[in-house]
Amino acid sequence: MNEFRVADVACEYRTNPLGLGTAAPRFGWRLVSDRRGTLQQAYRIVVAGADGRFESPVWDSGVRESDTSIQVEYAGPALQSRTRYTFRVKAWDTAGRESDWSDAASFETAMLGAGEWQASWITPNAAGIDPQAEAAFLLRKRFELKDGIVSARVYATAAGAYELYANGRRVSEDVLAPGWTSYQYRIQYQTYDVTDFLQAGANALGVHLGDGWYRGGMGFEGRNFRYGERRAALIQLHVRYDDGTEEIVVSDPSWRCRTSPVLYASIYHGESYDARLECGGWSEGGFEDADWTAAEALDLPMNVLVPQENVPTRVTETIRPVSAFVTPAGDHVLDMGQNMVGRVRMTVQAAAGTRIELRHAEVLDRDGNIYFGNLRPAKQTAVYTARGEGTETYAPRFTFMGFRYVKVEGYPGGAPPLDAFVGEVIHSDMEPTGSFVTSDERVNRLQSNILWGQRGNFVDVPTDCPQRDERLGWTGDAQVFISTALFNFHGGPFFTKWLRDLRAEQHPDGGVPFVVPDVAGGASSAAWGDAAVVCPWTVYQYYGDRRLLAEQYGSMKAWVDYIRAQGDDEFLWNTGFHFGDWLGLDAKEDSYVGATPRELIATAYYAYSSRLVRDAAKALGHREDEEKYGELHRQVVRAFREEFLTATGRVAAPTQTAHVLTLMFELADESVRPRVAKDLNDLIVENGYHLTTGFVGTPYLCFVLSNHGYHDTAVRLLLQDSYPGWLYSVSKGATTIWEHWDSIKPDGSFWSDDMNSFNHYAYGAIGDWLYRKVAGLDMDPAVPAFKRVRIAPQFGTKSLSFASAAHLSPYGRIESGWKVDGPRIEVMVTIPPNAAADIELKGATLSELSEGGRSWDAAEGIYSAAEHAGGVSLTVGSGSYSFRYENADLFRVVYSEQSVLCDVLNDEAAAEVLRKHLPHLFEGPMLKFMGTSTLKQIAENGLTRVSSGVMDAVLAELAAL
């Protein structure tokens, strides 16, 4: 075989996108090769019109000598509005192979000019329908079309949430369109291909219009009309005929309106639907609407309209309830088996007027009754009133719920049958890109919980929780979780849209709201406002998106400059309100804020963000800013050390989080970092291998332990199934991540109703450590988008015998996995074409290393290899590799399994065990370690290899001491 081809061609992250608002879209592709070490030498892109005549292209890049295969920008003549283009790609590799042309793909532009809207915002005439009516609206327009329809596109949006119909059919599967943006600045519109929905003769468009986020009581005050008092729709249909003519149908006062069977719909509270009010065929051309009310134009802004940026929110999965039961309180309850976000679709045969109520909740209390307390005022209730005609099906349209359990009242016959209900999972329809699995099924359940938590909280914005009266885009939660999120799902469009809202909402002085879109008030807490810097930088790291980084760069600088302007010392941040280490377990009684001083956290993040702005300046070629923010970073680090560290490495605050931030953000001098790390480890060991960190410290805790020689402690924290720890919630049956470490206490009681979400993804940030450190799949931060991969799995404890992670990067699928069987280790790696990897094989030697069953130096694709005290370092090209070797690095295992910190000379019993089994340690080159070194220091030199039998004997005897 000699396979070399171009696959997965995309435009602006998507396959055949419709309605792009980008004047110069970017292309990307993946290479497929059956050879190791494949690198692209050159590429060629040809863009043609809709007819696909590539021999007469709109733009031909020509053959470009480049290894770039992502974010390649269109550089041809100006694109036309509302126009479809086709494109294809071919590539050459460094071995001289030329691929065939890729399959043709397409993209279609939206309305690129500001003056192209001819439609008006419309709403029911106030004389006929109360503008403040709770019921949703139906709006329709009948029109005639001639023969010869070639194509038809609808450009649609709403001040509210809408569903679009054409001739009696839903135009798309989108849910809660147009999504939630900072509406006063930006409202997305959608582009739909309705060619197959239309016909010659009578046609109709219909809009079902609810409040959505626009008019509902979002935020803590429950105040309606945050963006506007009246819902409205904006519709523009363009129909092209085979004779070259075009016809346009727009929303205007000629449309007809009435209230819908949706009597009430609220994001927080649910929906009420009366099927007796349905009017069949209401969106068809032949429907009689004489008794409907006329529409009226509404003076809403047009300059806020932007083409769809995010992927749409959709039903992505359906799940069946696993059981139905009667609680001790006598309630009929369905168990979906999974805490999910979305809605229930119900099928029923019932008499007209039968009222069925579905109340949604996350958990049962310790008595087995369904628990609604943590919802606060949110009702999460769907009410259906039956039409009374045969089999009826209903699911809410303009809301979503966070739930596992459903209380069913009023279902005919009393006990609801399982086959009458199905859960429809709703979230932004992002492509799954990551996986992780280990030998411990509890950790696998944790990974599943992380995924479900992300799905449930990525409903058009990155929300904190999906069930209570909050569901807001908290900036702090987003920034601590974004790397985990982007590993698991392709979030480029998702965060592009949200970050543009953040930039729009940013205050004139550079302050950043607590939530985006901002419906809560309050701004500029450390670790929350830093989302303005951390999030665009992380998107750049994952996708190499320099355009988004450049867009957000002014916002990034403005945030750091805001911090610098606070207080009397420009290099310390010791003023203003901060959430601190939110929900830290070392908090004072009746406080949500952990014990770590807020000014320490604020200054630590100040240093971190100034460093990232420096790095962004470098990536964008802003040399003056690179120096400016580099110097600022140095000064903030200096000030932090003077204020919060002693010269010997003592951290002023004796909290886990203080030590974590000091190490993670590299705020201590390199010479004293071992002291800081040891003190952190001691704090954890003294606490029975339990954490005390909150929202700020937890995401980085295991990282700093693994990075500073305490990976075993990090693994013990991971596997801790008693409170507090990640597996405690798993032991309690959690299927998502909890807001509190003890949302359900050991005795079955609950944390306070005030703030107790059972689907709150922030602590799921442990996933980033699982993927990068346990499985060892990481990137080189200097070469974004995983073009340069780092593979460095950390093993050595007996707690896990294998782990594996995979990520679908812009270049292709990356895999890193390992298995340990006694002293035998196998590391499996896959690197996609046009990428390379640096691999660290812990405890390996070149003499014992094999790849694919042969000596490593006979293997194709290995560019370099070097042995050092810790193992072997390799540089490899693309391809799949299987490395095997024996690693009986006794002292690492002894140290990691037993946490022995004793000095050999001061612990005669431990020394005697070593002399008995390993006498050579006390001879020759090892003599220099005796008398001054701890077992840990001896272990870290990795000089001794023994059989697994001797290893087990030593461990057993040390454990008995």
From TrEMBL:
<dbReference type="Pfam" id="PF17390">
    <property type="entry name" value="Bac_rhamnosid_C"/>
</dbReference>
<dbReference type="GO" id="GO:0030596">
    <property type="term" value="F:alpha-L-rhamnosidase activity"/>
</dbReference>
<dbReference type="InterPro" id="IPR012341">
    <property type="entry name" value="6hp_glycosidase-like_sf"/>
</dbReference>
<dbReference type="Pfam" id="PF05592">
    <property type="entry name" value="Bac_rhamnosid"/>
</dbReference>
<dbReference type="Pfam" id="PF17389">
    <property type="entry name" value="Bac_rhamnosid6H"/>
</dbReference>
<dbReference type="InterPro" id="IPR008928">
    <property type="entry name" value="6-hairpin_glycosidase_sf"/>
</dbReference>
<dbReference type="InterPro" id="IPR036116">
    <property type="entry name" value="FN3_sf"/>
</dbReference>
<protein>
    <recommendedName>
        <fullName>alpha-L-rhamnosidase</fullName>
        <ecNumber>3.2.1.40</ecNumber>
    </recommendedName>
</protein>
<dbReference type="InterPro" id="IPR016007">
    <property type="entry name" value="Alpha_rhamnosid"/>
</dbReference>
<keyword id="KW-0378">Hydrolase</keyword>
<dbReference type="InterPro" id="IPR008902">
    <property type="entry name" value="Rhamnosid_concanavalin"/>
</dbReference>
<dbReference type="InterPro" id="IPR035398">
    <property type="entry name" value="Bac_rhamnosid_C"/>
</dbReference>
<dbReference type="InterPro" id="IPR035396">
    <property type="entry name" value="Bac_rhamnosid6H"/>
</dbReference>
<feature type="domain" description="Alpha-L-rhamnosidase six-hairpin glycosidase">
    <location>
        <begin position="433"/>
        <end position="774"/>
    </location>
</feature>
<feature type="domain" description="Bacterial alpha-L-rhamnosidase N-terminal">
    <location>
        <begin position="149"/>
        <end position="317"/>
    </location>
</feature>
<feature type="domain" description="Alpha-L-rhamnosidase concanavalin-like">
    <location>
        <begin position="328"/>
        <end position="427"/>
    </location>
</feature>
<dbReference type="InterPro" id="IPR013783">
    <property type="entry name" value="Ig-like_fold"/>
</dbReference>
<dbReference type="GO" id="GO:0005975">
    <property type="term" value="P:carbohydrate metabolic process"/>
</dbReference>
<dbReference type="Pfam" id="PF25788">
    <property type="entry name" value="Ig_Rha78A_N"/>
</dbReference>
<dbReference type="Pfam" id="PF08531">
    <property type="entry name" value="Bac_rhamnosid_N"/>
</dbReference>
<feature type="domain" description="Alpha-L-rhamnosidase C-terminal">
    <location>
        <begin position="781"/>
        <end position="850"/>
    </location>
</feature>
<dbReference type="InterPro" id="IPR013737">
    <property type="entry name" value="Bac_rhamnosid_N"/>
</dbReference>
